[in-house]
Design a protein that fits this description.
120 residues, mainly beta, 55% strand
């Protein structure tokens, strides 16, 4: 089992920045990939960015050039630096940790979510 705790959400004006943090505990040795997803009201949860245990990153097209995902030195913490925020970035942001079962399946863990609101 993996437990995830997010922090860093809040209210920010358009064009501003926020940094989200996610700390994993428990069976962290089993984590193959960590990432951030978001869900806006009335919409499905969508990918924001992921980073593998090897350091490879993947970004949604809406995140590229504005958001940066990174890991802490202890590898059990993942960050999302969000710059040039737009009102359409408003959503609940969820941290995810995945353990690959095979090439098609993974065991996924989720944090409780942190609200990000971009508004003037």
């Amino acid at each position: 089992q993996v437990q995830l705790v997010e922090s860093g959400g809040g209210l920010v004006q358009p064009g501003g920045s926020l940094r989200l943090s996610c700390a994993a505990s428990g069976s962290i040795f089993s984590i193959d990939k960590m990432g951030w997803y978001r869900q806006a009201p009335g919409k499905q949860r969508e990918l924001v960015a992921t980073i593998t245990s090897g350091g490879s990153t993947n970004y949604a097209s809406s995140s590229k050039g504005r958001f940066t995902i990174s890991r802490g030195n202890a590898k059990n913490t993942v960050y999302l630096q969000m710059n040039s925020l737009k009102p359409e970035d408003t959503a609940v942001y969820y941290c995810n940790a995945a353990h690959y079962l095979d090439e098609n399946r993974s065991e996924d863990y989720w944090g409780q979510g942190t609200q990000v609101t971009v508004s003037s």
